[in-house]
Design a protein that fits this description.
With 211 residues, the protein is mainly alpha-helical. It is built from six helices and four strands, in the order αββααααββα. The strands form two sheets. It has a two-stranded antiparallel ribbon. The protein has a two-stranded antiparallel ribbon with strand order 3-4.
C-alpha cells in the first residue's frame, strides 16, 4: 500500500509538472507579446478597438455569434481559408492581443469573420444581413429586434434610415446595439503582415549524402 501511494504521488507530480511546464511556457511565449511597430510607418499594430466597436464586441458575445462563426484563418495545409478569401494570411497570436476576450470559436456553420471588415466595406450590407438575411445568407437567423420600425416624418427621413423595404410611411433605423455590432464587424481586419505571419514554408527534405 505504501508503494502504491508513492507510485500515485510520483505519477501525479510528473503529470502536474508536465502540465505546468506547457502552461508556463505558453504564457511566457504569448503573454509578453506587445504591439508591433512598423519600421517605416512607425505605427503600432494591431491597433486598439474604438469605443463603439468595443461595445459591438459585447453585442457579438451576447448574441452568441461565436457559436456559428470562427475568427481564425488557418494556414495552407490546415484548411482552405486563404483560398476561400477569408484572409490574405494565417492568423497569429499577436492578432488577438488587443482583445479582452478572444472569440476564436469552434464551429463554422457560417464563414470565418476574422477579416470580414476587409472583405465587406459597406455598413449597409451588414445591416441588411442582420435584418433580412434570407436573400444574402439563406438559413441565417434574422435579428430584427436590433432595429426600430417607426413612422417617418414626411420630407424629413432620418439620416440613419435604411433601405430595407419599410412599409409606406415608415422607416427602419438601427438601434445603438446594431450600430455597435456593425462597427465591430467592420473592425475585424488583420491585413498587416507581422514577421511571424509570413507564409509558413517547410524546409525541403535533405537528400541522402547531401549537405
Amino acid at each position: 500500500m505504501k508503494n502504491g501511494l508513492a507510485l500515485f504521488a510520483g505519477a501525479f507530480a510528473t503529470l502536474a509538472l508536465s502540465w505546468g511546464a506547457v502552461v508556463l511556457t505558453a504564457h511566457r511565449q504569448y503573454g509578453s507579446l506587445t504591439q508591433y511597430k512598423d519600421p517605416v510607418e512607425e505605427t503600432l499594430y494591431p491597433q486598439p478597438l474604438t469605443g463603439l466597436a468595443n461595445q459591438g464586441r459585447r453585442v457579438y458575445q451576447d448574441l452568441g455569434c461565436v457559436q456559428c462563426h470562427t475568427q481564425q484563418v488557418r494556414r495552407d495545409g490546415f484548411g482552405a481559408d486563404v483560398a476561400r478569401g477569408w484572409g490574405s494570411r494565417q492568423s497569429v497570436a499577436r492578432d488577438y492581443i488587443r482583445e479582452q476576450t478572444v472569440l476564436i470559436g469552434s464551429h463554422r456553420y457560417g464563414p470565418d469573420l476574422r477579416n470580414v471588415g476587409a472583405r465587406i466595406t459597406e455598413p449597409e450590407y451588414f445591416y441588411k444581413l442582420l435584418y433580412s438575411p434570407a436573400a444574402i445568407a439563406p438559413g441565417k437567423p434574422a435579428y430584427q429586434f436590433l432595429f426600430e420600425t417607426r413612422q417617418a416624418v414626411p420630407g424629413q427621413p432620418s439620416a440613419k434610415a435604411l433601405k430595407l423595404g419599410a412599409p409606406a410611411g415608415y422607416e427602419i433605423v438601427p438601434t445603438r446595439r446594431a450600430e455597435a455590432l456593425v462597427a465591430y464587424l467592420m473592425s475585424l481586419k488583420d491585413t498587416y503582415e507581422y514577421p511571424e505571419a509570413k507564409p509558413f514554408v517547410e524546409a525541403p527534405a535533405q537528400k541522402e549524402g547531401g549537405h
